[in-house]
Amino acid sequence: MKSSNSRPSRVGRNPFTHELKFTMIEKIKIGLMSVTVFPVRLLLVSFFMLLAWPFAFTASLGRSEFVIEPQSWWRRFIDLCLRVIMRAMWFCGGFHWIKVKGERAASSEVPILTVAPHSSYFDAIPVTMTMCSIVTKLESRSIPVWGTLISYIRPVFVFRSDQDSRRKTVEEIKRRARSGGEWPQIMIFPEGTCTNRSGLILFKAGAFIPGLPVQPVVLRYPNKLDTVTWTWQGPGAFKILWLTLCQPHNPMEIEYLPIYTPSDEEKENPALFADNVRKLMAKALQLPLTDLSFDDREISLSRGPLHIYDYSSLLEFNQLVCRLGLRAGTTEKVLEEQARRARKMQGDRLGLEDFAQFLNLPVTDTLTQVHSLFDQQGDGQIDIRDYVIALSTVHRPSKSMKTLKLAFKMYESEESGEVLEQEIAAILEIMLGVKEVELSGVFLSLDGPDTEKMTYDELHHFIDQHPRFVQDILDFKNHPRKFCIGRPKSCNGQNHNKDD
């Protein structure tokens, strides 16, 4: 599969992974802090959180989630008490001095604060300092103690079980944002998920759909040892808490950037509005832009013996099929049916019109882009089997052996079940996102006759025997092993895969 020239690839480091490496001195410090400071801090943090609960519970009694009422004197007093208690809790957790730059605008002037990068549950610190509302899933209301504190700030709850949840959430954000400051400001993390702060991923459009001015807010954790990052692949929640409470001091910076007022074009195009704010925040943070989104995390975190090596072209393909509405309708049954139809074609190459007919879609610019991704020879013709393999790969990125089996069904001989070497290479090129796969080493390692053919069971058995099949056995263009001198296992580049 080739990348489109219409959009440059800006993937870079995987933002959904976080690996902690400690020096011996750091390990000794953590060991000492674990038996001295950590228990005390944990006890104090727990105490202040429990102390905050009755205040939040009392203030929430009899209050409507949908109607704003005047803030009475006793609720203002409780609000002040909660801010003091929560600040004391963070202080006990090692966040002694929180540096705040810039000035937060009034809710009547700016109803929405957009905060990035979102990388930890410690990002709750600016929420507790401002008592802004947030957008959160309904299930968070059921979390013991913390759920009451969340309910107190009157969040916009997302009902994930409701098929119409996204529309209702956007409507509620618009209703509050257009109240003229009667509702508290809404603090939104437009990335929609936690990353490792290596770059800003694509912003969701929710905060920008109302078309009203927003105030960007950037967060920084300038600590030497990053113990706060909590993302999809890396230390778990308790380990993050333990390591952070073991640090003598946890610095944090919150910067309020100037208010961003959208142009008429941005008001009509929330995606453009979101992207321009993202660029502004990336510049302030001195971070690169990363063309990944929350929906791309599974592809970028694929695992297994045939994990995706270079996911840039597959991510572009995934974004295009999502735009066509094909991704949401993909099921195991749909993949099997498309594979059956593709096998019947016996390698017949399809032009754009035939490709549209195969998918039962009209010819559009997006469909043309998808078709061009598989036009390897530049003659306007594609092998539909390549499309099915790519769709299966992005649909179940961590189940590569299922995709391999599906691919073999489309290519295998009816008599022997074998697939030619060059066809296996083509399959692996799409699944791994690489080019010029060479399988001669694999065939030389087999005990059978040199037929340049292989069944699925033979390849599956070989991969089972070589768990590091991609790194140690397979050959392809720009493989790190090609730059090594000596035996492959002595090469420092062998681990330079997509997750490093």
From TrEMBL:
Among Gene3D superfamilies, the record links this protein to: EF-hand
Originating gene:
lpcat1
**According to its UniProt record, which protein family does this protein belong to?**
Belongs to the 1-acyl-sn-glycerol-3-phosphate acyltransferase family.
The entry's cellular-component GO terms read: endoplasmic reticulum; membrane
Kindly report the protein's main subcellular placement as a broad class. membrane
Q: What pathway is this protein a component of?
A: Lipid metabolism; phospholipid metabolism; Phospholipid metabolism
Q: What is this protein called?
A: Lysophosphatidylcholine acyltransferase 1
Keywords for the protein's UniProt record, in alphabetical order? Acyltransferase, Lipid biosynthesis, Lipid metabolism, Membrane, Phospholipid biosynthesis, Phospholipid metabolism, Transferase, Transmembrane, Transmembrane helix
Q: Where are the transmembrane segments?
A: 30-57
